[in-house]
């Protein structure tokens, strides 16, 4: 059963869709889950869909000619269509199922970058990128002789576009950029970057891991060449992700993983490739997870991304205001209106790991560490930050719980109020 | 899951965090070693002054990181002064955890045991230094 959120958005009804949110933690504490940027919670409809697959028609896809195989394959391909509509892709064949954002990026780094980049070519990155949108390019650059260039950040954690003309030139072949920083929360100007990249003949590869679950995405406007995102951050299962790329690109690229399903014909010493997207889906794909992702997209559509954005932004504004008022708290990233619902912070005198441990004792789950962005933390001159991230299933009372727990942590650390 | 988690930031830990024992450096240590916890960036250096009877005369630490890793280093330094190198070789991870007196979850044990790990590596290299493996 799913909630039928009436307008105005009814957070209590929505919360009842998420079984995990109903539990009590150690000490009978309710769970205050503020770690959605790491992985989101799953609504009952997604869990039920996965169970339905396993209980009723699990069987390998694109293989057996039997009733179960037919049903499973149909479900899988319907899920692909749901993804296509969700991100505005022209064709369903432009949706490649991967294991997640990381694999999607590696697919582009192997299938496209290693094939097309030459010495002297450049990839334009920036220091706020997640390691998943950084390390694959480092490897591709060292394999091809291409070079990495970095767009600097402004002091408040936005891309410094004043240097764009200098750094984005005819040598640039790819701009790889996150649509939303998983630490600073920064929402990057993808439209401008796509336009400027295309003006110099470069492609744009967008890391949508954080943006796709929290804001509408349309790969045709702005014109996005590659888009990667993960199912588990989109209220869907783990082990499933998406790479979107325009058909011409997918057709021109080399395969990444090789094996069954990705071939047309196999001879003893050579093979030819299947049509896209099968060319990039070697082996048995996580088909039940893909169907679960389809169910997650249905759920998001039912709640409505505008509702999601509105609720998350309101929570984020409240959390920013209240935490900023706590002595010793520093918040990183731009002003809240330029951010997704992500709040990274430090508390002077309390290490982020101690903070997250103390918060956990009150049931408040946040993340502490470098969040897979070591270059960004180096730039901030920090080894770790604490990060609270919000979803539409969070409440204003949970923001209060976060702030109270931070105040209590300072007290445990004998800091003056 | 209704048992409350046991308190780990108790007075013992917080006292050591606030006023650490022998935080700093020795003028001329007999041996010193540093390590860091790559996941969270906690960092600890331990320095020993070992006397002619093979006893730890002084132990100092320096470091950066969470209260658990830093208090543990302080507690360790206090506990090992006066002990012989032989005694320290018998010192086990569980002994270290017992010294902390609080129950650490698996994820925090890495913090609590960082200085212990540094000590153990240092003792090992001290051995190597003193008894170079016979060649052949
Ligand atoms: C911005 C960003 N990019 C990439 C990733 C990697 O995603 P995954 O681990 O699902 O491949 C994450 C999540 O950790 C992220 O936040």
Q: Short summary of the structure?
A:
With 417 residues, chain A is of the alpha/beta class. Chain A has 13 helices and 17 strands. In chain A, helix 2 packs antiparallel against helix 9 and helix 11 packs across helix 13.
The beta-strand count of chain B equals 3
Helix segment tally of chain B = 6
Residue-averaged pLDDT of chain B, rounded?
A: 91
What are the distinct ligands in this entry? Answer: pyridoxal-5'-phosphate
CATH architecture of chain B: Alpha-Beta Complex
* Helix-residue proportion of chain A: 25-40%
What is the CA–CA distance across the termini of chain A?
A: 46 Å
Helix/strand order of chain A: HEEEHHEHEHEHEHEEEHEEHHEEHEEHEH
CATH first level of chain B: Alpha Beta
Written overview of the protein:
The complex is a heterodimer of chains A (417) and B (136). By secondary structure, chain A is of the alpha/beta class. Chain A has two domains: 11-30 and 304-412, Aspartate Aminotransferase, domain 1 (Alpha-Beta Complex), CATH 3.90.1150.10; 47-301, Type I PLP-dependent aspartate aminotransferase-like (Major domain) (Aspartate Aminotransferase, domain 2, 3-Layer(aba) Sandwich). Chain A contains 13 helices and 17 strands. In chain A, a hairpin with a 4-residue loop joins strand 11 and strand 12 (271-273). With 136 residues, chain B is α+β, with helices and mostly antiparallel strands. Chain B has a single domain, classed as Sufe protein. Chain: A. Chain B has helices at residues 11-18, 67-80, 85-90, 93-100, 106-112, 114-130; strands at 31-36, 43-50, 56-64. Chain B has a three-stranded antiparallel β-sheet with strand order 1-2-3, covered by helices on one side. Chain B is globular, with a radius of gyration of 16 Å. Classes of the chains: A alpha/beta (417), B alpha+beta (136). Chain A binds chain B through residues 23-28, 350-354, 357-358, 360-361, 368-370, 383-384, 412-414, and chain B through 1-5, 7-9, 14, 17-18, 39-42, 64-68, 108, 111. Residues 100-102, 130, 132-133, 178, 182, 207, 209-210, 230, 232, 372 of chain A line the site of pyridoxal-5'-phosphate (PLP).
């Amino acid at each position: 059963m799913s909630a039928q959120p009436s307008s105005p958005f009814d957070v209590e009804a929505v919360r009842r869709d998420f079984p995990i949110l109903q539990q009590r933690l150690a000490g009978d504490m309710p769970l205050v889950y503020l770690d959605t940027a790491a992985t989101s919670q799953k609504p009952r409809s997604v869990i039920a869909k996965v169970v339905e697959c396993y209980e009723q028609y699990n069987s390998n896809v694109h293989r057996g000619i039997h009733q179960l195989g037919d049903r499973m394959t149909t479900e899988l391909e319907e899920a692909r269509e749901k993804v296509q509509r969700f991100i505005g892709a022209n064709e369903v064949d432009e949706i490649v199922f991967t294991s997640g954002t990381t694999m999607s990026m590696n697919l582009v780094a192997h299938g496209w970058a290693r094939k097309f980049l030459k010495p002297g070519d450049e990839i334009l990155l920036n220091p706020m990128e997640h390691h998943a949108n950084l390390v694959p390019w480092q490897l591709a650059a060292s394999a091809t002789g291409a070079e990495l260039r970095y767009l600097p950040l402004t002091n408040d954690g936005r891309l410094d576009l004043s240097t764009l003309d200098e750094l984005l030139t005819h040598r640039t072949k790819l701009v790889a950029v996150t649509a939303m920083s998983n630490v600073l929360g920064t929402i990057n100007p993808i439209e401008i970057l796509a336009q400027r990249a295309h003006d110099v003949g470069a492609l744009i590869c967008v890391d949508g891991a954080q943006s796709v679950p929290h804001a509408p995405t349309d790969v045709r406007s702005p014109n996005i060449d590659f888009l990667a995102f993960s199912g588990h951050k989109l209220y869907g299962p783990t082990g499933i992700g998406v790479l979107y790329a325009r058909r011409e690109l997918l057709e021109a690229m080399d395969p990444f993983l090789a094996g069954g399903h990705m071939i047309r014909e196999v001879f003893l010493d050579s093979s030819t490739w299947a049509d896209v997207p099968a060319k990039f889906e070697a082996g048995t794909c996580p088909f039940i997870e893909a169907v679960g992702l389809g169910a997650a997209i249905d759920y998001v559509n039912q709640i409505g991304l505008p509702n999601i954005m509105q609720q998350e932004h309101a929570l984020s504004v409240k959390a920013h205001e209240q935490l900023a008022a706590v002595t010793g708290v520093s918040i990183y990233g731009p002003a809240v209106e330029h951010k997704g619902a992500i709040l990274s912070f430090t508390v002077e005198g309390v290490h982020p790991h101690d903070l997250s441990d103390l918060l956990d004792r009150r049931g408040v789950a946040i993340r502490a560490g470098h969040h897979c962005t070591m270059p960004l933390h180096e730039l901030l001159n920090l080894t770790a930050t604490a990060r609270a991230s919000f979803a539409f299933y969070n409440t204003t009372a949970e923001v209060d719980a976060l702030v109270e727990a931070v105040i209590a942590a300072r007290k445990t650390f004998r800091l003056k109020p | 899951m209704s048992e409350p988690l046991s308190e780990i930031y108790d007075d013992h830990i917080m006292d050591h965090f606030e006023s650490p024992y022998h935080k700093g450096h020795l003028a001329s240590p007999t041996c010193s070693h540093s390590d860091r916890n790559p996941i969270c960036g906690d960092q600890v250096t331990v320095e020993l002054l070992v006397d002619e009877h093979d006893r730890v005369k002084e132990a100092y630490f320096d470091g950066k990181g969470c209260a658990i890793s830093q208090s543990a280093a302080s507690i360790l330094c206090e506990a090992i002064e006066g002990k012989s190198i032989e005694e320290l070789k018998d010192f086990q991870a569980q002994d270290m955890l017992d010294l902390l007196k609080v129950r650490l979850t698996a994820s925090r044990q890495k913090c609590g045991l960082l200085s212990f790990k540094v000590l153990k590596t240092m003792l090992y290299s001290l051995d190597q230094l003193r008894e170079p493996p016979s060649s052949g």
